Amino acid sequence: MTSLLLAALGSSFAAGPGIDPIVDADAQRSAHNDAHQLAERLGARLVDRTVSGATTANIVDTAAATGADLLRASALSADHALGSSAPWVQPFHQDLLATGASFHPNRAGMTAIARALGELLLR
Q: Is the peptide bond before 21 cis (omega within 30 degrees of 0)?
């Protein structure tokens, strides 16, 4: 039986800076980002190319060129902004080493995105 292979592209909003454990310090990629959570849930192999610093154009252009589906996480999180009763983003971090994770998805946000990705894949 062939196992499912997932490939993930994304900026820091997909990589998960500030969510421990960080598995790639250069990319600021978390082992609990949405791609890792989805791969674990599906028992899939994962090629995670999410990188803090990638631009929206990098992601949109790559998806269009390959025919990949694109999940717009911003639409999912509209009711979960900072200050909401259930935010999916990290607050501002004053610690200089953690500042880059400020206003990026938290683990709850990554989990919600992983669920939506799973639904997209299984439709």
A: yes
The answer to whether the beta carbons of residues 116 and 32 sit under 8 Å apart is no
Give the whole-number percent of the chain exceeding pLDDT 70: 98
SS3 state of residue 108: helix
Closest by Cα among 114, 93, 117, 111 to 103: 93
CB 20 within 8 A of CB 61: no
**Residue pLDDT, tens place only, 48-102:** 999 999 998 988 888 889 888 888 888 899 999 999 999 999 999 999 889 999 9
Distance in angstroms (rounded) separating the CA atoms of residues 35 and 105:
13
**Structure tokens, 107:** 């683990």
30 in Cβ contact with 50 (< 8 Å): no
Task: Find residue 105's DSSP bridge partners.
Answer: 89
Residues 6+ apart with CB under 8 A from 12: 28, 50, 51, 52, 53, 54, 100, 104
Q: Write down the residue that tokens 């909003």 correspond to.
A: 13
